[in-house]
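Human: Here is a favour to ask of a fellow structure person. Comparing notes only helps if you start from a blank page. I am asking you to supply a protein in sequence and structure-token form. Write it directly below this note and I will take it from there.

Assistant:
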Amino acid sequence: MIPTFEVITFPPIEPVGILRLSGALTNLGDDALVSDTIPSPDRPGRIVKVTAGGPSSRPNLVTTVRSTILECWDVDRDDAANLCERVYAIAMATRGSVGDAWVRYMMSVGEPTYFPDPRTDLPRYQCTVSFALAPTTN
């Protein structure tokens, strides 16, 4: 008999980040749009974009570490900086259940920094964090 191996899958990272950040920002009274895309043509001035990015790793059989780039725009540079600091703090405080995902721990890859957007006149700050995820149940 040929041995079979269990297939271990993990949740996609963007929906996990979006759910966590949008819920926490709403609870804080912050109306920033959190998405994995920028709406066009009706782009809001205050937005957080969540994008899967490197590095990522698989430290063991039941954990994957997935990095996300969190881009934060606002109409004022100080407000964009404050939004990014808030988003970074929320992300780094994430543990436990987020929707159908389980976040084991968080890691900082890059703290908030000014990152001008050449396509718009809006100030942008960004940070990069890694979510350590448990496998999904199949």
